[in-house]
Every structure is written in structure tokens, then in C-alpha cells.
Amino acid sequence: MNERRGERPVRLSDAQLLDWLQLARSDNIGPRTFQSLLQRFGSASAALKALPRLIAKQNGGRAIRLAAREDCEREWEALRRQGGQFLTLDDADYPQTLRAIDAPPPVIAVRGRLDVLARPMVAIVGSRNASAYGAKFAATVAQELGEAGFVIASGLARGIDESAHRASLATGTVAVLAGGLDKIYPSENVPLAEALCERGALISEMPIGWVPRGRDFPRRNRIVSGLAYGTVVVEAARRSGSLITARYANEQGRDVFAVPGSPFDPRAEGTNDLLRQGATLCTRSADVIEALTPVIARGPQYQNGAPSADEEADLFDTVAPQDEVNDAIAVQPVAPAFATSVAPQDFVERLRALLGPSPVSIDDLVRATGRPVAEVQAAILELDLQGAIGRQGGNRITLMP
To answer: Cβ-count burial of 115 within 10 angstroms (0-12 exposed, 13-18 middle, 19+ buried)?
Structure first.
């Protein structure tokens, strides 16, 4: 990448942006693999040129297929016609809070005002089947937080999300979509989506034309929480998607606020559980403002610290949305000698032989092989592209059966 996470980036040229988009849209290239490829080969263009050689060495595993350049050009033109644009991790306008999370989306599509993305955000989420009280509370908190200078982030769903967006239209609100920017869900919120673009923005990491699937909503939720310094959960049943957003917020090191509810209302079971688990009690907007003021003054904290010249992001697993974000392998940059070549196949096989069903840390593999970290990471990248490794917590990997 052109910049280290945490430094001020610059806008890419059109050709570089198309390279990023093509790499991001390629099958089974997720945020972690994307970042490790950029770190290994130096640019999206170089990674695109190197991938065919890596794919040719695959023996089963993930089906890596490069996106067609023409498809990416058509998508870019379609987004332009809608008045939108792409932002990458190398763009100055990419939200700093989102850039700070583990495995941020490398490319996002945005419609609306970019300046709103630079302001501090609070996410407000909750039940689609909201009670009258819950909808009113969400609207009140959203309006007061907006008047205090916060942008409200949510998922444009029915119920609590919709109430929060409507109440903050005048002060700025951001809606994150599970599908493409042209596939608003639910469809009855298309007028709301158009209205919020006047002083806010629509965001999606999915391609134009993408119809949201069930698994795309947790992916969206990680962006909602990633944009915000804190997430307020107003109403949520025990298996609510809003609890997924709260979990992501917690894992991203962000504050989680929960609004208490009646023990007789199933819509309060999830929020009451969050309070028992240590979430911050929220009964008024001042609770959020008081808690987040010192956090905002410090700025977004990069997960595991902002990678330095000898530290980089994680490989990516496409098994399930929660696994895509939670389980990680720390990836070190590759030394210049390996920047344009693949890892020696004998060493890749040696590394494979050291793995098994029990999780092994990267540090242990470096010690066991006696090889440089960069060379170990190069072999891990190839095993990852082959679908040969799985991930556990604590930067550990296992051999897939």
C-alpha cells in the first residue's frame, strides 16, 4: 500500500483504483488476503500479475478467479452514473475509524457527502420489530447526538435503524448496505436512502447490482460498528442481528451501550444480557457523550496497533462472515528478495508438514523452521490461497482436513 495504517493516505490514480477494484472483486480474495497480497507484492497491479502463477500452483482449495477488468470498468461507470464513487484504504476520505479495524474492506462504494465520513460517529441499532417506546427512544437519542456533533450510523433496516436515520437526517447520518448501492433493502426505505444522501452518505463494500443475501448482513454489521466510536443497542432479542453488531463493536475495541428494557419484553432480552455482560448503561444521550468524549480526543485505536514497517494485516478466511473478521493470522511483510516471486515449493511443503489439527502460532513456525519471518509468511500465503489452512484465535493456524 502507499501508506501505513494510521498515516495520512493520498488518493489513487484511476488506473490504480481499477487495480484495487479488480483485486477486491476477484473470487475468494477477501480483506486479509487482499492486504497480504499488497504487502507481499507492493501494489495491486503487481499482485494481479503474480496471482496467475500462484493460482497455477494450487492443488484444490479455494477457487481463486480474477475479476474481469471490463466488469470492473462497467461497475465504476455505473457507480458514477448514480453519483457515487469508490474509496480505498489509500484514500484520504476513507473513514479513519473503519480503517482502524481488523481486516477493513479495501474498497467501499459511497454515495452522498464525503465530509460526513470525517466526523465522529455513533451507531444506533436494534430490533426490526421495534416497540413504540424503542423507536421513540432511538429517535430522541439520535437527534440529540446529532445536535451534539455526532453522525449516526446504522443499517437502514426497519424499526430502530429507520428511526435513528430519520431523526438525524438534518445533522448527518450514514447507512451501510448489505447489497450494492443500487439494491436498497428493504425497498420501502428507498426514499429514506435518497433523503439521507443530502447531508449524509450510503456505504457498501458489495458490487453494484449485488442483491443482499443472509450472510451479507453480518458483513454489513461489522462496517456499521467499525465506523463508530460506540454502538448503542436499543432493543434486541436474544438472537438478534443487533447483537452481532455489538459483538463486532466489542471485538473492534469500541464502546457498547445498551438500553435496559422490561424483563417481560422479548425485545429487551438481548439488551439486558448485554448489560449483564458489561455493556455501558444508556438511558439518555448524555451517557454516550460523556463516555465517548475522551475516546474521540484520542482518535481511533488501531487493532493490535497500527502496523509498522515490519508488521502487517491478516490473511482472510471466507468460511463465514464472523470468521472473516474474528480469526486472524498476523502477516509480516516480505523481504525485497521475495517481493516478486513465490515461496520455494519445498519450503511450502515443509511448512504444511509442520501443521496439524492443533493450532500453531506463527512465532512457533518461525522458530521450528529457522527461516525468516518473511519467508514463512510467503509460504503461509500460498497455503492460504490453496485453502489448506484454517485459523484460530491468538494468531494461530491449523491444517485443514
So the answer is: exposed
Query: Strand pairing partners for 149?
Result: none
* pLDDT number for residue 394: 56
Q: How confident is the model at residue 368 (pLDDT cuts 50, 70, 90)?
A: confident
Q: Do 118 and 222 lie in a common domain?
A: yes
Task: List residues bridging with 176 in a β-sheet.
Answer: 203
Nearest to 94 by CA among 122, 75, 112, 117: 117
Do 53 and 155 lie in a common domain? no
Instruction: Give residues with Cβ within 8 angstroms of 68, minimum separation 6.
Output: none
Measured CA to CA, the distance from residue 247 to residue 254 in angstroms comes to 10
With respect to residue 122, please indicate whether it lies within any of the assigned structural domains. yes
More confident residue, 367 or 96: 96
**Residue recorded with cell 490453496:** 386
The pLDDT value recorded for residue 277 is: 94
Given a contact cutoff of 8 angstroms between Cβ atoms, the answer to whether 27 and 318 are in contact is: no
Q: Is 3 contained in some domain?
A: no
* Residue 210 shares a structural domain with residue 127: yes
The C-alpha cell at 142 is 439520535
Q: Extract the C-alpha cell encoding 129.
A: 420489530
Residue 335 lies in domain? 312-399
Helix (H, G, I), strand (E, B) or coil at 193: helix
Return the pLDDT at 393.
Answer: 56
Strands 201-204 and 230-233, by their bridges, are unpaired
Is there a single domain that holds both residue 240 and residue 102?
no
Q: Is residue 306 part of a domain?
A: no
According to the 3-state scheme, what is the secondary structure of 272-301?
Answer: HHHHHCCCEECCCHHHHHHHHHHHHHHCCC
**Residue 186 grid cell:** 428493504
Q: What is the DSSP letter of 155?
A: -
